[in-house]
Specification:
The chain is built from 10 helices and 12 strands. The protein has about 290 residues and is an alpha/beta fold. The strands form 3 sheets. Strands 3, 4, 5, 6, 7, 10, 11 and 12 form an 8-stranded mixed sheet that branches. It has a two-stranded antiparallel ribbon with strand order 1-2. It has a two-stranded parallel ribbon with strand order 8-9. Helix 5 links the parallel strand 3 and strand 4. Helix 1 packs across helix 3, helix 2 packs across helix 3 and helix 5 packs across helix 10. The longest helix is centred in the first third of the chain and has 28 residues. The chain is rod-shaped, with a radius of gyration of 33 Å.
Length: about 290
């Protein structure tokens, strides 16, 4: 007994006619008749009663019809599953990212992992100044950085913004400034300011200059890392201007304020080499496209 024999038998039953079944299946009447006869011979039982007007099932035929439909449905589902497995995206995808927290990125990463469970997906935090080089030298497939940290020329790269963000002023939670929703640059003249020295980008320097209104650099405390910056701020040692996604990652115990009169906006961007091709990256760009549509 073969699946194709069962399929033809079921069509004969449902059409109550060998001729109509043949037309439905795009086969000849003789093929339909021979197939059902061969099926009955292989089973050693009659399955149908025939007269000049119609074809009807007997009890054996009804059992084969009911169970055969279930068997064909399982077979079709198996074929679909095997084909999907053959098309499954696998491999690996490495992401070099600035250390930050973004709901948009978190949702995208979860969606990608859900849709492509066979991909070995890794996110590696790197310094802001390192990320472009990581992708450029193929040490990572995708980079996640801030738009102001990209080189002026990105020929040969695909750049896709994923979320609009801005800088914020962070201070200790018990600082008097914490009660405010925003501050003006002039309100900070008497405040100690903390900066991450060598890690600052040109964009950050411009914002700090506007915020501090040409305050002498000798009055600005420079620290080596973001971790040390937030420890200083949380302990009441001063205030600082940082990207809001970084404040979410490091400064949960700090208050975050907007700065009036200062455009601090930027984008979180993904980027990758145009010549970097493969199913894992294609799946990622597909997930990114769906996130943009949403």
């Amino acid at each position: 007994m073969e699946l194709e024999q069962i399929r033809i038998f079921i069509s004969v039953v449902e059409n109550a006619s060998f001729t109509k079944a043949a037309e439905t299946l795009y086969i000849s009447h003789s093929t339909t008749s021979r197939t059902v006869a061969a099926l009955e011979e292989s089973l050693g039982v009659r399955l149908l009663t025939r007269d000049s007007r119609s074809v009807k099932m007997n009890e054996a035929g009804r059992l084969l019809y009911d169970e055969g439909r279930s068997l064909l449905a399982q077979a079709d589902a198996l074929v679909t599953a095997v084909r999907e497995a053959a098309d499954a995206v696998s491999g690996s995808l490495t992401v070099a990212s600035v250390d930050l927290f973004s709901e948009a990125l978190s949702a995208l990463y979860k969606d990608y992992c859900r849709r492509f469970p066979e991909v070995a997906f890794g996110i590696y935090n790197r310094g802001l100044s390192e990320i472009f080089e990581q992708v450029e030298k193929r040490k990572a497939d995708v980079g996640v950085t801030f738009s102001y940290a990209l080189p002026e020329k990105t020929d040969g790269f695909v750049v896709r913004p994923v979320a609009r963000e801005r800088f914020c002023l962070v201070c200790a939670a018990d600082d008097l400034l914490a009660a405010k929703g925003s501050v003006k640059p002039g309100e900070l003249n008497e405040r100690s300011y903390i900066s991450v020295g060598a890690q600052r980008s040109g964009f950050t320097r411009k914002l700090e200059d506007a915020l501090l209104q040409d305050r002498p650099r000798s009055t600005v405390l420079s620290v080596p890392t973001l971790e040390s910056l937030f420890l200083r701020v949380e302990s009441g040692g001063g205030v600082s201007l940082v990207p809001r996604p970084i404040a979410r990652a490091f400064g949960q115990s700090c208050a975050c304020l907007d700065v009036d009169g200062l455009d601090t906006s930027f984008d979180i961007v993904f980027f990758w080499r145009e010549d970097n091709v493969g199913p894992a990256l294609n799946g990622f760009t597909e997930a990114l496209g769906k996130a943009e549509e949403a």
